[in-house]
Amino acid sequence: MNKINKGVIPVLVLLMVLLSACSSSGSNRAANTASDTNPTASPQAQTTPAADTAAADPITYTGEPVTLKIMYGAAPEWWELIRKSIEDKFPNIKVEQTKQRYNSKNLEELFAKGESLDLFVAQDYQLAKNFDMTEPIDDKIAASKYDLSIYRDGIIDNLRSRDPEGKNQLYGLPISEKRYGLFYNKSIFDKFGAEYPKDGMTIDQTLELAQKVTGERDGVKYKGLTIPFYSFMFTQFGVSGTDPKTGEVLFSKEPAFRQYFEMMDKYKHIPGMIDTSDTEYSFDTE
């Protein structure tokens, strides 16, 4: 058997998990990777010179043709990026997409048909754990001497915080990066006589500045800050909403929750920021 060549990418690490797990018959277990609510290393930055994989737990690939089935219900252009990055690097590997979204209903339907998954893209691992689809990859990382330092600080720590076992284990690797930016209109700030945003501002400082540019000018109502996804502000705390062992909701015990809700309450109470007369609010998660 031939050793895998140097220059592997994170997807390959996931393939390692797959190839080692395939020896277990009758299992729906799939390798997994994380994506989406938190910043992750960009696809273009994922190539890294990895060391030889000859370690205590050798990872090998014979080069035979392999087809991998990946659950990923994202936009076509993102799927094409993933497909191309794998197949260009490993011509003998073909990837097949199941276009359903990663949720309990779709997984149940897939397995009811007798189909299986090799990889899936998800943000949480609890659902995968319920289907016996999770396996820590720390030993694979150590065996391949894969360099996790290629990712921005905090990314891997964030993924470890999602361990459904609460043991800080790593179950997947990032495949894309989502960064949030603060965009502003200088003319509006000039209209209110407010200073422009600066690099390095905290959320509290941003809210204070947003209050200065919230109001009415020349018959036009201005809202100083629009947050498209409130959840991204909470994920920066890197904490779990429930106890992984007992399932207990941690709202009253985890200080980060109070800090988050106090922050959102401050945003809500900026005069003129929230206009309930023209906005419909819902707690529907669909």
Automatic annotation (TrEMBL):
Signal peptide positions (record): 1-30
Positions with biased composition (Low complexity): 39-56
Ranges where the record places region Disordered: 28-56
Family of this protein: Belongs to the bacterial solute-binding protein 1 family.
InterPro entries with a match to the protein in the record: Bact_solute-bd_prot1, SBP, SBP_1_CS
Pfam families in the cross-refs: SBP_bac_1 (PF01547)
GO biological process: transmembrane transport
Name by which UniProt lists this protein: ABC transporter substrate-binding protein
Sequence ranges of Polar residues compositional bias: 28-38
Keywords: Cell membrane, Lipoprotein, Membrane, Palmitate, Signal, Transport
